[in-house]
Amino acid sequence: MRQVIMEKTFPEPASDELVDKMRQATEVCFEINDMRRVVTYASADRLRFICVMEARDLETARRALESAGMTYDRLWPATSF
Question: Residue 38 sits in a domain of what CATH number?
Answer without folding.
Answer: 3.30.70.3090
